[in-house]
TrEMBL record:
Protein name in UniProt: Hotdog fold thioesterase
Family: Belongs to the thioesterase PaaI family.
Source taxon at top rank: Bacteria
Classification via InterPro entries: HotDog_dom_sf, PAAI_dom, Thioestr_dom
Length: 142
């Protein structure tokens, strides 16, 4: 299968770009890039939970939007970038403090001006915990 990526990022480059930002502070890391998907992971600890001891929904959205935005940028030519214009998330199952979530992102639409990405999050036992969709606008780098 031909890769959809025009500018793939290594895990080290991903980590360097996130350093000092919200996703970096939350411990999000790139795990794998396939020909048409990417995976990232995030620990679930005191930084990520809500008062009931489970992953805060906003943490799931940060993971999903971070991975989707990186996928968008990897899928466009040099001189182009992507900006998020809409994100949604359906939270399906809790993730407890001490677990880890893995996100897998795949393109639903790779247009010249709009992209749509689906991101599925799973906790350590493989249970689907969140389904998110991210729409990005493709723009010229300024």
């Amino acid at each position: 299968m031909t890769s959809i990526w025009q500018r793939p990022v290594t895990p080290a480059e991903f980590a360097a770009r996130l350093e000092g930002t919200l996703p970096g502070l939350l411990g999000i890391e790139l795990v794998e890039i396939g020909s048409d998907f990417a995976r990232a992971a995030m620990p679930v600890d005191r930084r990520h939970i809500q008062p009931h001891g489970i992953l805060h929904g906003g943490g799931s959205v940060v993971l999903a939007e971070t991975l989707g935005s990186f996928c968008g940028s990897m899928a466009v030519a040099e001189g182009r970038t992507c900006v998020g214009v809409e994100v949604n998330a359906s939270h399906l199952a809790p993730v407890r403090d001490g677990d880890r979530v893995t996100a897998e992102c795949r393109a639903l639409q790779l247009g010249r001006s709009i992209q749509v990405w689906q991101i599925e999050l799973r906790r350590g036992d493989g249970t689907l915990t969140c389904v998110s969709r991210l729409t990005t606008a493709v723009r010229e780098v300024r």
